[in-house]
Amino acid sequence: MKLERVATALPRHGWQLLPLRFHRIDADSVVLTNLVGEHVFVTPDELSAVVNGTCADQELLARLRAAHLIQVPGETLPAELLAIKLRTRMRRLPDSTGLHMFVVTLRCEHTCRYCQVSRQSAAKNEFDMTEETARRALELAFRSPSPHLKVEFQGGEPLLNFPLIRWITAEAKRMNKEHGKDLAFVIATNLALLDEEILDFCAEEEIHISTSLDGPQDLHNGNRRRPGRDSWQQAVAGIRRVQERLGKDRVSALMTTTEASLGRAAEIINTYAELGLHGIFLRPVSPYGFALRGRGGANYDVDRWLQFYEAGLDQIVEMNRQGVPMVEMYASIIAKKMLTNADPGYVDLTSPAGIGIGALVYNYDGDIYASDEGRMLAEMGDRTFRLGTVHDSSYADIMLSDGLLYPLTESITLSAPMCATCAFEPYCGADPVFHYATMGDFTGHKALSAFCRRNMGVFTLLLRKMRDDPYFRDLLWRWAQ
Amino acid sequence: MSPADGAPRTGAEATGAGAIGAAEITLAFDQATVNLDALQRSAYAVAAEMTVDIRVSGADYVCTFFPRKQDTTDDELKHRFRAEVNDQILRVRIAKETEPLRNLVFALAFSQTGLVEAEGA
What's the whole-model pTM score? Predict the structure, then answer.
């Protein structure tokens, strides 16, 4: 490697630029980021002086040098350190795929207004996964290089096919005697069918429960409909039972923002706090399937969601100030990417994208999808992200398929228009399924992309708050750990 | 700043601009000082607010704006595009100056992963 010859090219006035990107936070402030997302705030005039090579502010130059935004000609250490940090951020890539989602049934006793996939009658067994399909899916899952394997049971409502959950768990553990992977299980359930037998099983097998909770009773039951109109009561009772039996840390909840949620951020967060849930993920509704229909709850734009998100974040910060621990999960994922060299591996915020290499989905019928959203598109008639089937596809067939590699390579942010020069590229990710679903191609036009607008809004919000509020900066540092 | 400094000129100032009509919103940029790549990147970046037609006219690039919303004034469009062009000029300059170091960092980062073969291997 001709390190010294390259590194001493382009001498400037005692210092030279390292690869950097910038974004204007507001009229008085610009954030500069280096190749791995370390950042420094400067003024617009300082930005011009730095890029034009006229900056003589030694204090600023020292800050920029410390953040690997400039270097003294002849130095080799900054490039070496940046390379180590870059490699650290990407170290997950050789260890694909960690998350394997098993759609054990498409049946569900809920008819949620924003549900993308499942309106099958709870009595139709033809929408259940069979043991043979599950066994073949497990064999593929264990081919993944990842030393960590998380099996997530999805639906429909997966507890409607609880016998298969038992069977898969036992079979996975049996197979793992040969593979020795770090094996974990999650059931994504609405908890309405939770009983003592299931709790015993979860306790014995150390299974984590992930559930849905949209906020207060009227909001949740308005979104998540079931016979008896008692979805919220069932979910709350279920969360308490899991907490008592398995422990507080063994259950987490996800909320989905519908139009009815906007303006109610504080109530939603308080519902979580009252249940002893110390983390909440303020998620927008996904632009797939039934959610896009008139009553699907998706009738709001990115700006309205950002207002909701900021109100929720402010509420959470205030709770922490008053000694009530609460984490906004999306901010904590971004904080880890902004403030550390660890990549949390969140599939929507990685590049290359998380499809296939971060997660695989095995549908009830054996079809394999690159992501859950890809499966949702298929339920709407578009099988673009179907990679094969457990019945006749090999691991190589799936992972080397055009259906996976083409969207992965098309959407890499380091080469995508606008992303490549975006200051937030190290924090962001590629989402080829979202862009395909909303714009018809895997890359998407970033200037028109709701994904881009939403994430740019969140990144800018977090940086602005970090700049202006020392307490928030410390809180975000804690969330990043 | 004079046009020779790379400052944009309004449509009325643009010369030899071909089919520029009286109702069109245009800015002219001196080719000697404004990179076409920066203009094209700017046109991409402002696509949510306007579409931009870029033509060569004499020594200028003449940009014609087509706003997506009717309530945007001509001056707002011009300020928005000028600001974007200024930023893109900086980005192009940074990219050009730092490209060797960027390539070096990526080469160092991936040279030890086993994903690329060593030079000369």
Answer: 0.90
